[in-house]
From TrEMBL:
Enzyme class: transferase
Gene3D superfamilies attached to this UniProt entry: Four-carbon acid sugar kinase, nucleotide binding domain, Putative sugar-binding, N-terminal domain
Function according to Swiss-Prot or TrEMBL: Catalyzes the ATP-dependent phosphorylation of 3-oxo-tetronate to 3-oxo-tetronate 4-phosphate.
Pfam families: NBD_C (PF17042), SBD_N (PF07005)
Family recorded in the similarity comment: Belongs to the four-carbon acid sugar kinase family.
Record-given protein name: 3-oxo-tetronate kinase
Keywords assigned by UniProt, alphabetized: ATP-binding, Carbohydrate metabolism, Kinase, Nucleotide-binding, Transferase
Keyword field contains Ribonucleoprotein: no
EC code(s) of this entry: 2.7.1.217
InterPro entries reported for this sequence: 4-carb_acid_sugar_kinase_N, 4-carb_acid_sugar_kinase_N_sf, NBD_C, NBD_C_sf, OtnK
Gene Ontology molecular function: any one: kinase activity
């Protein structure tokens, strides 16, 4: 039986997503930023390393993932999970195939599974095709993603286009028949020379079945749902309350909402929160013109507001306005400028007694976490499926890092229900 699982996550919100689901299912989990601290607590069941390797160059993603694997081995991990997005977020030129191949080679293995499903958030896999809220991936909003437009829903084809080996399918009938049937199907596929098996998954109840079936594999790959399944099988769901205690939001320290995501859901969340809290738009032109002075002005504005409800700074824009801004300044220039200002604001607020940061967007979460110089997190209670509160390992600082599409429209208010200052 496994002692410790090492997770290599290709972005920050994906890392807190899987960490949160494992804690909700009874595992004690530490999340590291970069190399993290020298050691992790002895009783930790899983260590999650947050990378920013989803959309970078393939060589960089492979190098970072192999370095993370080496670090996880140093920390006593003996089984590994490559965590990517529940919407796959990887085209034919993407990094999932090359990183999976590199991890398999480094571990001396030739077989793994592909399991992005997260049914509680509407991501299911049927006949090897990925659906988002019942719509094929290539017909969902993901078809227009600015970096990774998903124009195919078939995971077998998507994987075959970017990886070296053969792809097969564990169909839903095997999943319904239970862990032994899934294992038998995996053995058949291996005997036929298959290297990656896509796992059909329709409900959250399928995930412990799959978790049990793959619990002996050295490497598994997929979304946070499979992380939930692995933890559930190991603990029977016991110990969640204890596991999430360490990561509960800090007492004291003012709160702020920083929203840098332009997803549809974040737009809805910002619109809803604007009706009840002080709010201010982060203007792209000013981020570009005079970032340091603008960040100071924004931080001073935040500090001057009442503490509750937490004031919000948002760069969030609907798709049409975002397209206009990107056409005017260039997408990369605009997003870097906005990220730089959020980073500077967060660092200033941390120095002014702010201890709770509610952040929307994967990239935005990455930059804010780095600006706050956090080395790692304890994982706390989930505000919404896939979004736990997390607490810095070494300072009184808590963050809620929300993936663009996660949470309902009351997310920013809901996050503040978890503490009473
Ligand atoms: N008004 C804006 N104009 C241009 N770029 C913006 C604007 N607002 C935000 N951005 C940039 O858009 C990017 C949003 O990416 P981010 O990963 O934070 O959100 P997301 O893609 O919705 O989240 P996720 O990756 O979790 O799905 C960031 O680089 C951010 O700086
Ligand atoms: O799997 C998801 O959808 C999220 O964990 C994610 O990867 C956020 O970027």
């Amino acid at each position: 039986m496994t002692q410790r699982l090492g997770v290599i996550a290709d972005d920050f919100t994906g890392a807190t997503d899987i960490a949160g689901f494992m804690v909700e299912n009874g595992w004690r989990v530490t999340q590291l930023i970069g190399h993290g601290p020298a050691e992790v607590p002895a009783d930790v069941d899983a260590v999650v390393i947050s990378l920013k390797s989803r959309s970078c160059a393939v060589e960089q993603a492979v190098a970072d993932s192999l370095a993370a694997l080496a670090r996880l081995k140093e920390l006593g991990c003996d089984r590994f999970f490559f965590k990517y997005c529940s919407t796959f977020d990887s085209t034919a030129e993407g990094n999932i195939g090359p990183v999976t191949d590199a991890l398999l080679a480094a571990l001396g293995e030739s077989f793994t599974v592909i399991c992005p499903a997260l049914p509680v958030n509407g991501r299911t896999v049927c006949h090897g095709n990925l659906f988002v809220n019942g719509v094929p991936l290539n017909e969902s909003g993901m078809k227009d993603h600015p970096v990774t437009p998903m124009r195919d829903a078939n995971l077998q084809r998507l994987m075959a286009a970017q990886a070296r080996g053969q792809v097969g399918l564990v169909d839903y009938n095997s999943v319904l028949a239970g862990p032994a049937a899934v294992r038998a199907r995996i053995e058949e596929l291996k005997a036929a020379g298959v290297n990656y098996a896509v796992l059909d998954t329709l409900t959250m109840a399928d995930l412990p079945v799959l978790g049990e079936a793959v619990s002996e594999l050295k490497l598994v790959t997929g979304g946070s749902g499979l992380g939930a399944g692995l933890a559930r099988v190991a603990t029977g769901g016991q110990g969640a309350a204890l596991a999430r205690e360490l990561g509960a939001p800090v007492a004291g320290g003012r709160a702020v909402v920083l929203s840098g995501s332009c997803s549809q859901m974040t737009n809805a969340q910002v619109a809803t929160y604007k009706q009840r809290a002080p709010h201010r738009l982060v203007e792209v032109a000013r981020c570009i013109e005079a970032p340091a002075a603008y960040a100071a002005e924004l931080a001073d504005w935040v500090a001057a507001q009442d503490s509750a409800p937490a004031p919000m700074l948002y760069a969030t824009q609907p798709a049409a306005e975002l397209a206009r801004i990107q056409a005017q300044y260039g997408a990369a220039r605009a997003s870097e400028a906005v990220e730089g200002v959020f980073a500077a604001v967060a660092a200033r607020l941390a120095g002014q007694g702010f201890g709770k940061f509610i952040v929307a967007g994967g990239e935005t979460s990455g930059i804010v976490t780095q600006a706050l110089a956090v080395t790692g997190f304890h994982i706390g209670p989930q505000i919404a499926p896939g979004v736990p509160w997390v607490r810095a390992l070494d300072k009184p600082l808590s963050l809620a890092l929300k993936s663009g599409n996660f949470g309902d429209e009351h997310f920013f208010s809901n996050a503040q229900e978890f503490y009473h200052d």
